[in-house]
Amino acid sequence: MSDGFGEYPSIDPSVPDAMAKSVARGCGGEYKGATEVNLLAFDRCRIAVTLRVRKPLYFREAAVVFVRRIAQSLCLGVLACAPLFASSNEWSQPTAEQLKMTSDPAAPNAAAVYLYYEDLVDDKVHFHKVYAEVKILTEKGKEDFSEIQIPYEQGEAAPEGMTANSMSVNEVRGRTIEPDGTVVPFTGKPYQKELLKTGEEKVMEKVFSLPDLRVGSIIEYQYTIDYESDWFQPPAWMLQKRFFVHEAHYHFVPTDSTRTIVSIDAQGHENVASHLVYFQSLPKGAPQVREGLDGFDLAVDNIPALPDEPYMPPLNSFSYRVLFYYSPYDSGQEFWKAEGKYWSKDVDRFANPSGMIKDVVAQMLSPKDTDVQKLQKIYTAAMTVENTDFTREHTQQENKAEGAKVRTAADIWANKRGDSNEIARLFIAMARAAGFKAYAMIVTERNQNILNLGDLEWNQLSDEIAIVNVNGKEQYFDPGERYCEYGKVDWLHQMMVGIRQTDNGTEVAEVPSGPYTDNAILRTADLTLGPNGAVQGQIRISMTGTDALRWRQYALANDEEATKKAFEKEVQARVPAGVQVKVNHFLALADYTSNLMAILDVSGNMGTAAGKRVILPASFFEASETPLFAAQQRENPVDLHYPFITREDVTLTLAPGLIVETVPTNAQVPYPQMADYQVAYGGKGSVYKEARLLAIGNTIYKTTDYPQLRDFFQKVGAQDQQQLVLDRVAVAAAATPGSGPGTK
């Protein structure tokens, strides 16, 4: 197989361990994977008031629920709960050992640790209190806690007949305890800033800094969040934090309201929430949530920090947690089935192949077109629509002034603009109009999140892609991803578990990974080396797939000069020290149907003199690269993001007086079924050539695979640091090509 880049090595393009099933170890414990999250962990509480969950905006501390004012009682054995804990103004007293602590054996190399953390929620009185005691161990820890940030929602509009949710942060208190026991209280005033505003929704943040913070200090802070009497906030206990937690206590008192409570989901549907359910993912051996007359209670200790290793999947989606919901559903399966049905119905309404869409499609297609040709034309048409996620979203006022409305795919086509999901639905509508079976699928973004089916939040899902049956086989498309090539899916959406449409409703499904040949890079360099080490020439870098998409989208958000600078920086980091690269121009920067190419000019100096000899890096494009995965141990799976193949061809012509003396031995580093590396060196007289190939066929590796993966990249890195030796000869002798030692 070539795709214009030459022959590829034989690597199994399948991915044996898909993302959702490969979370073998993460966050300090064992997990079964996204598709096997224990939905049976939902326990029904004796409360029987009715509620419904509203989508969170930015700070997912908990799902917020609001009450419809209806004079109706639906209390079937309401849970009797004790009053909230007695709030005290007394701080805890650190021990002498804690004051003197310079490191923590329980968390080696930690920048800071939580000595104690407490999170208390009372939905009877609409009150949330947080208390934390933190030991600062390093300058990094000092930096991380230099500001305490408290996000909250403010002044949000509510549907007619309901009270707007207005949260307030109160009773912000804190103090710093120095290693000698000196106490410095916080006497300042927190300031407020806006984090996010979308329409009527606003997320604010209270920020304050504790005084005299230094390495060795213990800081304590506490605050309360109050919210409107018609709002309820079942908590999300996120047990794992950025730093190790020695002890933590969580308590939740549910509402005992006798009113009917109606919740509104992320898609705007109202339902009576007749259950209080919760999902728990706890460390092995940890106590379970205790349910009693005083509410729900959990005390835990020795909770490991959230994992943080390079090339790691977003395992935060599966951190230790307990999530509470006032819900109309009594199981996770019921939730995803019902919410999937709502979403699918909206997709079908929007993507209905109306008369206008049918007319447009009929005009662009020919009776002689094959199915593939038809779909290519439809995809091209969808790609002509302005994608406002990559330009700018038009305001309601602008749309109104222009008479633009956005209710169906026909509106998107008429306006010639829409966001990513609207364009994906337009493509589906057009495909359906052409007679194809076309379905929508909604997934997460792989660099941010993995769908956790135990978390009853539809808003985990964000991006819609299309599935079309072509000649009896389903193909996946990503028309909402600007400049994504036909028949390909952005790596952010590959191997992601999501919800898809079928002929019989919706189901949990997984997006397959594309083969490594989808993402190809060819780097070629044609260089000359002067007698004193001056180098000049040209580099051509051709790209398809993910890298081409990345740079095209970068250019959308930046001008061409900024794109050139960024591209130069990336290449500069690879080439030998002393060599400078400058982008001359791009080819096909806005044409996703062609290979993207960058042309760079090369100048500077290269090589180190050693007597009569000159030493050069044998691999020009890898000279400044360091091997991946230097660490011998690994606690979490590895995610290399996407499969790819890279080829490099370098020709170096030497000035008179220099000839090739010694080249490294050709090498191959196999990793059966997973990857391959091959490199060949050739030198004859005044010409040196290098050909290098690296192909990665699998991207997800369990921790048990890590030793072999590390060994592969260590061997590749060592080979890439081999040296080329040149010899200085008399100019007259150099005029006749010779064959010094090791030349070919």
Could you characterize the architecture of this molecule?
The chain is globular, with a radius of gyration of 30 Å. It is of the alpha+beta class. Helices cover 17% and strands 35% of the residues. Strands 9-8-12-6-5-15-20-19 form an eight-stranded mixed sheet. Strands 31-32-30-29-36-40-39-38 form an eight-stranded mixed sheet. The chain has a five-stranded mixed sheet with strand order 13-4-3-16-17, with no helix packed on it.
Primary descriptors:
744 residues; 12 helices; eight-stranded mixed β-sheet; alpha+beta
Task: Tell me the layout of helices and strands.
Layout: E1 25-26, E2 29-30, E3 50-54, E4 64-66, H1 96-100, E5 112-122, E6 127-136, H2 139-144, E7 148-153, E8 168-177, E9 183-185, E10 191-198, E11 201-208, E12 218-226, E13 231-232, E14 236-238, E15 245-253, E16 260-264, E17 270-272, E18 275-281, E19 290-292, E20 295-303, E21 321-327, H3 332-350, H4 355-364, H5 371-383, E22 386-387, H6 396-401, H7 409-415, E23 417-418, H8 420-433, E24 438-443, E25 463-470, E26 473-477, E27 497-502, E28 505-510, E29 520-529, E30 535-544, H9 546-557, H10 560-572, E31 579-587, E32 596-604, E33 608-610, E34 613-617, E35 638-639, E36 644-654, E37 658-662, E38 667-671, E39 675-684, E40 687-696, E41 700-701, H11 706-720, E42 723-728, H12 731-734
Parallel strand pairs: 3-16, 5-15, 22-23, 29-36
Antiparallel strand pairs: 1-2, 3-4, 4-13, 5-6, 6-12, 7-11, 8-9, 8-12, 10-11, 14-21, 15-20, 16-17, 18-21, 19-20, 24-25, 24-27, 25-26, 27-28, 29-30, 30-32, 31-32, 33-34, 34-42, 35-41, 36-40, 37-42, 38-39, 39-40
Helix pairs in contact: 4-8, 5-8, 7-8
